[in-house]
Design brief:
82 residues, alpha+beta, two-stranded antiparallel sheet, 2 helices
Length: 82
């Protein structure tokens, strides 16, 4: 993960008996006006790395406001939907 981001921030929120939410803010410097392809590639690498890491201990890509379109491929994989 370190090779993709410049700074990592985070906090815990919404604690329940089933678990808690860990909110992560990842900052990565790039100039998307000069190189939109580089910015997009960096973002996709960050997403892929995050979901590989979080799925290792059995965590899921869930959020209390829903999963959204960006997480759809991860949810499909987690649920075993082909």
């Amino acid at each position: 993960m370190v090779e993709h981001v410049d700074e990592v921030l985070g906090h815990f929120s919404h604690a329940f008996s089933q678990g808690t939410s860990l909110y992560m803010i990842l900052l990565s410097r790039t100039n998307r006006e000069k190189s939109p392809a580089e910015a997009e590639e960096k973002l996709l690498n960050i997403w892929e790395t995050i979901h590989k890491i979080t799925s290792m201990p059995g965590a899921m890509a869930a959020h209390h406001h829903g999963v959204g379109i960006a997480r759809m491929p991860i949810i499909v994989k987690e649920l075993g939907i082909v």
